Design the sequence.
């Protein structure tokens, strides 16, 4: 029983540290779109396209900065197969924007590390 309590405390502490350090939260907006992250400066939203694929957009102060309708770094017009994969990629892009990486490019090895299928 004490092991379970210790693991629970450890999980709670890591959860609190993650959100206190990065200030991000995954939420839903009023339209029902998944919002990838909220930070002080950027917000990512995942959308479903007309063919059933997924894509994301990133906004700053209500201004759209990026609309990524295809999987970045991949040749061709391939949408994300599900919202989770689009969400992970949007979070990576927001992380790069927050760190000042310019241009905030996504590479194939990063997609592979996120387990994005293409």
Sequence:
């Amino acid at each position: 029983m004490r092991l379970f309590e210790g693991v629970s405390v450890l999980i709670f502490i890591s959860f609190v540290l993650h959100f206190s350090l990065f200030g991000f939260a995954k939420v839903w907006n009023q339209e029902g779109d998944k919002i990838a992250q909220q930070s002080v400066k950027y917000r990512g939203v995942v959308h479903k396209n007309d063919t059933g694929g997924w894509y994301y957009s990133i906004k700053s102060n209500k201004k759209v900065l990026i609309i990524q309708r295809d999987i970045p770094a991949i040749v061709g017009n391939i949408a994300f197969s599900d919202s989770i994969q689009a969400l992970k990629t949007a979070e990576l892009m927001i992380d790069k924007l927050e760190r000042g990486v310019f241009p905030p490019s996504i590479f194939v090895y990063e997609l592979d590390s996120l387990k994005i299928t293409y």
Remarks:
- Strands lie at 27-28, 34-38, 43-48, 54-60, 63-68.
- Confidence is low (pLDDT under 50) at residues 1-30.
